[in-house]
Amino acid sequence: MEENKGNSEGTSLVHDFNTSRRGSFLTPKIIGAFAIIVLLGIGSGYFLSTRGTGAGGGRAVSAGNILNSNSVPKGTVIGSNDTTTFKDTAEGVLQQGGIDGEGAYHLVRSGGPSQYVYLTSSIVDLSKFTGQKIKVWGQTQKAQHAGWLMDVGRVEVE
């Protein structure tokens, strides 16, 4: 007896699927190119994040090993050169501590506590200047408790 492998018209019910379709999107060349692009993106992002530039396109000014000491020499300028973003200035002796959660530091100025400028900074490590007379350039921020709250972008030791 002969086995019927097809339907009544003589065609097979089981079809071979061609796995090497022409025009397939994910070819090994495309996958390799995508992997190279991803690696270059990660590498360039890492390189740019470790360059140490200031905010607002300004060039960061560093003083080498000075940043590791507790007392920064007079005349040293550290931070961004972008004086259009950081246009407000204040002078005084830097002390640690804010007011009611606003600012991490404050500048002691003549006139008493009502004249203090409370400071934060994401660019300059203000802890290196504690106890020193400095001039700061920054951007005034809206505050609830502080009379003057500033985001510091540049510091000069006086």
Topology:
Blueprint: H1 28-49, E1 77-79, E2 88-96, E3 105-108, E4 117-120, E5 133-141, E6 149-157
Parallel strand pairs: 4-6
Antiparallel strand pairs: 1-6, 2-3, 2-5, 3-4, 5-6
- Strands of the widest sheet, in order across it, are 2-3-4-6-5
> Could you please say which CATH topology of the domain at 57-157 applies here?
OB fold (Dihydrolipoamide Acetyltransferase, E2P)
| Shape verdict | elongated
Low-pLDDT segments: 53-69
| Structural class estimated from helices and strands | alpha+beta
CATH architecture of the domain at 57-157: Beta Barrel
Concise description?
The chain is of the alpha+beta class.
Describe the structure.
The protein is an alpha+beta fold. It has a domain at about 55-155: OB fold (Dihydrolipoamide Acetyltransferase, E2P) (Beta Barrel), CATH 2.40.50. Helices cover about 15% and strands about 25% of the residues. Strands 2-3-4-6-5 form a five-stranded mixed β-barrel. The termini are far apart. The relative contact order is 0.16.
